[in-house]
């Protein structure tokens, strides 16, 4: 087997349901370079962790020899300038500090924790909405609408506008699939572009409104922030809002769905969670290692030659960091292919690391813990209709497109 064929197999849709045997093969060549001009693929835990903290690695696509598209924050994908996840210091640090001031400590230290009651209410409403159904699609009926509703409440989108917001998000997320991205004339891309325009206009209206009348929401905080780092421009506010909406939403959908799928495959732990909600935090951390919603980071560039494991990665080369392969590296984790929520020293790569570690991680953790606890408690005898379920096309943001379950009912 050639290295080139291995990389093609990893990104091929036929491998989406179970890429982990291929990641095991990949780790045998810790720095994989399949062809001239192609990416350097890094798959071992310690190498990935080191590069995530290495200032010689850039997130700015303009440093690439041959810039490529980015599913999460490509300017063409959003119609806005790059968000801070696609920038390097010092501009990255300035924008992230401003955004973090409205998301957590020190200015809003209790924002996420204070949302727990609201999160439980949203989860309860969604599960109650299942009614007397005996077959459900967990993605469409729960894992997708939950984080969209949460981000609307967090940003300050009026509740009566949430259906419009979801209608714009659907085509934008659908257009992230690689199959359609290369064809801007495809119907899904045209629908996404129209949704981006409408979403941008709507958010711009909200920004103007919050400028005149700030409220207790994150959008108001972004608009009125005037700390030591200055303030965001309107375009920077919009770019940050879209980042929170699209990147954070899609990863949380996958984390919840992958989580329930894993628990149904490991019924002992599902029952354990039902009996003891206190294990939810451990379960979610192990899920982030075992089935991370972001499988790889394909948009890093070295800004100088880098020597790694005897291989010279030339300046300007693209680097792929395969987080999911590092998360199952036997050099770092004992028995890595076993799902074990009692694992000690669980320093996974599920949210990345370094200055670009996942901005929304605190919220995603709380959302997923509450979601899985309530699903385990209230769904009566859930069973997978098909295993593996149908997956999304996207190789970066990996998760089931549908997760159909048979249930005996919904407990009160």
UniProtKB/TrEMBL annotation:
Does this UniProt record's set of keywords contain DNA-binding?
no
The alphabetized UniProt keywords are: Heme, Iron, Metal-binding, Monooxygenase, Oxidoreductase
Residues of the signal peptide: none
Similarity comment: family membership: Belongs to the cytochrome P450 family.
Q: Report the protein name in the record.
A: Cytochrome P450
Name the species this protein comes from: Streptomyces carpinensis
